[in-house]
Amino acid sequence: MSKTIKKICCIGAGYVGGPTMSVVAKQCPHIEITIVDVNAARIAAWNDENLDNLPVYEPGLQEIVAEARNRNLFFSTDIEKAIDEADMIFISVNTPTKNYGKGKGMAADLKYIELCARQIAAVAKNDKIVVEKSTLPVRTAAALKSILDNTGNGVNFHILSNPEFLAEGTAIQDLINPDRVLIGGENDEAIAALVDIYAHWVSRDKILTTNLWSSELSKLTANAFLAQRVSSINSISALCEKTGANVDEVSKAIGMDSRIGSKFLKASVGFGGSCFQKDILNLVYIARSYGLTEVAEYWDQVILMNDYQKQRFADNIIQTLYNTVSGKKIAFLGWAFKKDTNDTRESAAIYVADYLLSEQAEITVYDPKVSAERIYADLDYLNTRSSEENRALVKVVNTAYEACNDAHAIAVLTEWDEFKRYDWAKIKEHMKKPAFVFDGRKLLNRKELEDLDFKYYAIGE
Ligand SMILES: NC(=O)c1ccc[n+]([C@@H]2O[C@H](COP(=O)([O-])OP(=O)(O)OC[C@H]3O[C@@H](n4cnc5c(N)ncnc54)[C@H](O)[C@@H]3O)[C@@H](O)[C@H]2O)c1
């Protein structure tokens, strides 16, 4: 018999902690869950009466929060109380790429994880199961265990690795119906306690249990393989543009081979999101630190290809617009790294914009879910130019029609469905001629646009 978990604390109320724990709360009304965060504004937004103000946008999330919040799902800044009362603690804090010191630009920054471990150790007065939900370098559990055991109050800690495989934009669906749940650990009772929670809605044959290190490494590996497929097809998209092949036709032809499969073979301006790049960099760093140079270089190429694709997309815009975009207005449709999320971390749009701004373009952005504040913060973070210059060169507007008004060209950076439904004749009417569209997501209908006399360019065609 495993220990029955009555109270859970989740540290980190971000894109993973928020949706993941909301779904656990929905599926397990008998468990009381408190999600805590040091960011008081974020917690306040999770507690906002108006569900449109939740800090994370995901289809289906609002309904679940409405159902479970203040029933068995709570959002709080009182971290110590939540740790003290919980039987099981999920650590779901950010693990960004280090931007200082040893491993700068490559290794995962584990300072937030370590802070959590120290706080858990200081507060815990009874035995706890500590679950790594954040994506961590392989063997982090050993460091966690050492901190917990050496700084704690003599209570027992069992560490589990339970990486999250949700994709933003489909997080709720992925959480309710996961391909698999992975739990790594050493203590059978602790593993069983977590398996029992998931078993409330996931069939047991989809719940895999492994040793800690396989679980930690599987998460990095899964992201590396997914990103590799995008970079592989993107590399072929460049070749398609030179040879007259069409990358969609190539994707379809190879994807029907059951050994390859059809998913994740869509060419685009490049992958973004908070995870792929950071997790591959981390994998590369780990491989290098074990002296596995060839392994490190192999995976590094996935990132180099992604950078190349973003650069190529921007270069094509400049070249096509008669080799200069200086003083020209480019409308950006989309800023989020993919549709159905308000997350912009590592979005291709940021890098394409930065490159075009360095060529003195003027950019007007419309994204249905991303705020102006976020867009300016993303550009300021790059430090390429002053924040005043970013604000002078980039305008953020509330409709796509406004964005495209008087534009020399449109660049589609996110595959939001609504872009397909626009009145493209009306958009063209108000643009400079010839009216160019650069479709970084292969979203729009070439025939429709060409019939309207747009000059239409899509990746890999
Ligand atoms: N975003 C994804 O799609 C995704 C998918 C799978 C796994 N992951 C992994 O999950 C982890 C979290 O990612 P995310 O996207 O939710 O990050 P996020 O930045 O959205 O959220 C992390 C939250 O943790 C909080 N936090 C940091 N240190 C804290 C501390 N000491 N105490 C309390 N709160 C603290 C931050 O304030 C922030 O709100 C990362 O390791 C990431 O790699 C992310």
TrEMBL record:
GO biological processes: UDP-glucuronate biosynthetic process
Reactions performed catalytically: UDP-alpha-D-glucose + 2 NAD(+) + H2O = UDP-alpha-D-glucuronate + 2 NADH + 3 H(+)
SMART domains: UDPG_MGDP_dh_C
Oxidoreductase recorded as keyword: yes
Active site: C275 (nucleophile)
Binding site for substrate: 164-168, 219-223, 259, 266-272, 337-338, 441
EC top class named in words: oxidoreductase
This enzyme's EC code(s): 1.1.1.22
InterPro entries: 6-PGluconate_DH-like_C_sf (IPR008927), NAD(P)-bd_dom_sf (IPR036291), UDP-Glc/GDP-Man (IPR017476), UDP-Glc/GDP-Man_DH_C (IPR014027), UDP-Glc/GDP-Man_DH_C_sf (IPR036220), UDP-Glc/GDP-Man_DH_dimer (IPR014026), UDP-Glc/GDP-Man_DH_N (IPR001732), UDPglc_DH_euk (IPR028356)
Residue ranges of coiled coil: none
Keywords on record: NAD, Oxidoreductase
Gene3D superfamilies to which the protein is assigned, alphabetical: Cytochrome c1, transmembrane anchor, C-terminal, NAD(P)-binding Rossmann-like Domain
A Pfam short name: UDPG_MGDP_dh_C
Residue sites binding NAD(+) per the record: 12-17, 37, 42, 93-97, 134-135, 168, 275-278, 345
Domain UDP-glucose/GDP-mannose dehydrogenase C-terminal, first and last residues per copy: 331-446
Pathway: Nucleotide-sugar biosynthesis; UDP-alpha-D-glucuronate biosynthesis; UDP-alpha-D-glucuronate from UDP-alpha-D-glucose: step 1/1
Keyword Ubl conjugation attached: no
Family: Belongs to the UDP-glucose/GDP-mannose dehydrogenase family.
Function noted in UniProt: Catalyzes the conversion of UDP-glucose into UDP-glucuronate, one of the precursors of teichuronic acid.
Protein name per its UniProtKB record: UDP-glucose 6-dehydrogenase
